[in-house]
Amino acid sequence: MLDAFNSSQLICTYSGYKPANRHKWGPGVRDIYALHFIISGKGTLETNNRQYPLSTGDSFMIFPKTEIYYYPDPEDPWEYVWIEFKGDEAERLIAMTGLEPDKPVVAACPADLKPYFPQVVGADTRHFEKMRTEAQLRLLLSYYVEFYPREAQPIDYVQLAKEYIMINYWRTTLTVSDIVNAVSLERSYLFRLFKEASGMSVSGYMTAYRMERARELLMSSGLSIKSVACSVGYKDQLYFSKVFKKATSYTPSEYMTLHGRDEKH
């Protein structure tokens, strides 16, 4: 249970600084991500039957369960820093960069990233220290997203509109125009895309999402109908009740009774 819980987080496991020397590792595999930044010198990474020569300013990533072998240049051995981490969130963040198992190396960065590599302390690290280390790792990875972005993918305007609704549905002033402006797309084009992708209009989706949240609150929150209405974006309780009945065939009071709750005044 604990491992399953941890796997969904961003967990920093180890970090360090390696001065110029003859240290090498592998061939072997690791079960973590390990991001390296070369401060000076040269070295080589071997993985997936390829050799990658590396030098000052370059970075390379060790991917989980991918065989690797890396070693310094005998004449000009590299100096580097590294951070090891794991978790599902790590996979999501790395996927936003240009780093991937078939492309584990990125060329010299326009900025010195060494200061942004967090330091992982001992196993007895306090919670706030772990939080700060994870925040520093997110900051570091944000530079890799900026300087080495994954090839641009088509913008999913429908998903952007849905996410905006999910974040702002509680606002009583939220309008379809707000959603259109948020995704920066011509109104009729967004409406067509939305209808094709979801089978409903933008306003219809917004109402459906609000009603879903309202059902959840009416069943289990202990809030009054007035509070539920306000919580899902309706100033007028009577209008909310009308919309709710149209969507569910029940008034809010009937819905509460159906799920074993008495109306709270």
Automatic annotation (TrEMBL):
SUPFAM superfamilies: Homeodomain-like, Regulatory protein AraC. Keywords: DNA-binding, Transcription, Transcription regulation. The keyword DNA-binding applies. Residues 159-258 form the HTH araC/xylS-type domain. PANTHER family: ARAC-FAMILY TRANSCRIPTIONAL REGULATOR (PTHR43280), REGULATORY PROTEIN POCR (PTHR43280:SF10). This is AraC family transcriptional regulator.
